[in-house]
Write a structure and sequence with these properties.
Elements (H helix, E strand, L loop, with lengths): L8 H12 L5 E7 L13 H8 L3 E7 L5 H10 L3 H4 L13 H5 L6 H7 L3 E7 L29 E5 L9 E6 L5 E4 L9 H19 L5 E6 L37 H5 L5 H34 L6 E7 L19 H4 L3 E4 L7 E8 L3 H10 L11 H7 L9 E6 L30 E7 L5 E7 L6 E5 L16 H16 L3 H4 L2
Parallel strand pairs: 1-7, 1-8, 2-10, 3-4, 3-7
Antiparallel strand pairs: 2-9, 4-5, 5-6, 8-9, 11-12, 12-13, 13-14
Helix pairs in contact: 2-9, 6-11, 7-9
Length: 509
């Protein structure tokens, strides 16, 4: 049951007590990859429910402002919308881990601010998709020492080279900046399982910290590859969900005649594709069983050390996913709720237990929140807000945030301007991305029953999609051509304001 969070004197008192105490609170952040909310992504995780949701606050309107890995992750780190993070796509040419990122937003990450406030910091897992690859900052070609660059702000660093994988991972390890050491792993089913490699590293950091640095606060991040493709579960969990099927939501295999060009081209999901979608779903759930174990082990460690009550634990994903919805066979990159909504659960000092907040929280809010916990204020360059404010003030809806911007730059190749060239035949078209899948949107969830999505696409049609979620939660009917002109004009003006906002200006919109 959703409960509107109001003022809790006890909770607020606990927050103040921590702030006034001799040691700042610790922060542990577990970030998953491609874990959806709308399609049941949290269902296979009993320890998350027991140890985090029941002991903390679940945010039912948590979303990302961009449904793609590197741009979303850069926003988690920097607290910025895409036009301010300078990261537009997954490749270095579009800002992912390149020099513009390294010379700008990366120097203003929550890690930098936490470390400057006396925190020992650790990052373990997937960083940004182009990290350590040619074209990334200081890495002109394979073998350059700069390819092992350690980003600023991290006391201990264990970063995955490139995109998510479960075996044959390359990991750059190091301490305190500079250049790290790269280790290439193989495909031994047990010894080389990458999610475990990253968990063991961050768990080792926690053990050492609690033993040798207990008087100092820590900020530790586990950015597991799970449940990104190729969806490889740990050997012990293979087949655990083999009899499950992916959700057949109302939007599953639904035709798209009123949507933008690339959506209109999509062919129906075939029976063989449906079997593959079910297999994806089951394997994704099986990868998450390991993540659920990690949650249990971290909480147990902090409890045994007497640190759980002085530690914030945030669980979130970089974006959602699709499993046949709108004929999209299995990816992200679209402005629909299955791609935007994410798990977002926060446990910690003063956080109401077993409660649900309907406030809109975003990936751009994590960096401001962590920075405020560590330093007492939100850095001026961050576009997002401190999530603790919505809990301490007891505000919901418009008094906190009633809308936000969604952004995406379509991925494409020359000469066909689609994600794959040559284009597939029209009779079997399952290409989900292209140059005209570039869009900006306003997603509104207001207290006066406004629940909508307004999107402007950058294409030759000047296409617009507009959905009223109060009557169409699955975004089946585009109302662009029938909606009242004043409503569309207001949303268009609002979107224009978001496109150019920066820092405090974004927070004041």
């Amino acid at each position: 049951t959703t409960t509107t969070i109001t003022m809790w004197a006890v909770s607020l008192g606990a927050m103040c007590a921590v702030a006034a105490g001799s040691q700042k609170p610790n922060i542990f952040f577990l970030l998953t990859d491609d874990q959806d909310l709308v399609l049941g992504g949290l269902e296979p995780m009993p320890q998350v429910h027991k140890l985090l949701t029941s002991e903390g606050t679940y945010f039912s309107n948590a979303m990302v402002h961009t449904p793609i890995c590197c741009p979303s992750r850069s926003s988690y780190l920097s607290g910025r919308y895409l036009h301010n993070s300078l990261t537009l796509q997954n490749g270095a040419a579009d800002g992912c881990a390149n020099i513009s990122w390294a010379d700008g937003p990366e120097k203003d990450s929550y890690a930098v601010h936490a470390q400057s406030a006396g925190y020992r910091t650790c990052y373990s897992g997937k960083y940004l998709n182009a990290y350590g690859l040619p074209g990334s900052a200081e890495c002109a070609k394979v073998g350059d020492p700069g390819c092992n660059r350690i980003p600023p702000g991290w006391t201990e660093w264990h970063g995955l080279v490139g995109n998510s994988r479960y075996y044959n991972a390359s990991i750059i390890d190091g301490n305190g900046g500079g250049v790290g050491v790269r280790t290439d792993y193989g495909h031994d089913p047990v010894k080389d399982y990458a999610p475990d490699l990253f968990f063991n590293r961050v768990f080792g950091f926690l053990q050492d910290h609690l033993k040798s640095h207990a008087s100092e606060p820590f900020l530790a991040v586990l950015a597991t590859p799970s449940c990104h493709g190729p969806f490889t579960p740990a050997p012990k969990y293979v087949g655990h969900f083999q009899n499950e099927t992916a959700p057949r939501t109302p939007s599953y295999n639904h035709s798209n005649e009123d949507k933008q060009w690339i959506m209109r081209q999509l062919s129906p999901i075939t029976p063989n594709m449906a079997l593959g979608i079910d297999q994806q779903h089951n394997n994704r759930w099986e990868t998450l069983l390991s993540v659920d174990d990690y949650v249990g082990e971290v909480v147990a460690l902090l409890e045994s050390a007497g640190q759980m009550e002085n530690s914030y634990f945030l669980y979130a994903s970089d974006h959602g996913f699709q499993l046949g919805q709108h004929r999209l066979p299995g990816d992200k990159r679209h402005p629909y709720d299955h791609d935007l909504r994410i798990p977002f659960i926060l446990r910690g000092p003063g956080i109401p237990k077993g409660e649900t907040s309907s406030a809109i929280v975003l990936n751009i809010d994590v960096a401001p929140t962590f920075s405020a916990i560590a330093t007492g204020s939100v850095p001026v360059g961050m576009d997002g807000r401190n999530v603790l404010d919505v809990l301490a003030r007891g505000v919901e809806g418009a008094s906190w945030r009633s809308d936000f911007m969604v952004q995406y730059k379509g991925g494409y190749r020359e000469p066909c301007l689609l994600e794959q060239c040559p284009p597939p035949p029209k009779s079997n078209f399952h290409c989900i991305d292209g140059i005209n899948n570039t869009y900006t949107c306003v997603r509104t969830i207001d207290t006066d029953a406004k629940d909508s999505l307004y999107c402007e696409f950058v294409d030759s049609e000047g296409f617009i999609e507009f959905y009223n979620h109060t009557i169409d939660e699955h975004q089946l009917v585009n109302l662009w051509k029938t909606a009242p002109a004043p409503v569309l004009a207001e949303l268009k003006q609002r979107l224009a304001m978001f496109r150019t906002c920066k820092g405090v200006g974004c927070r004041n919109l």
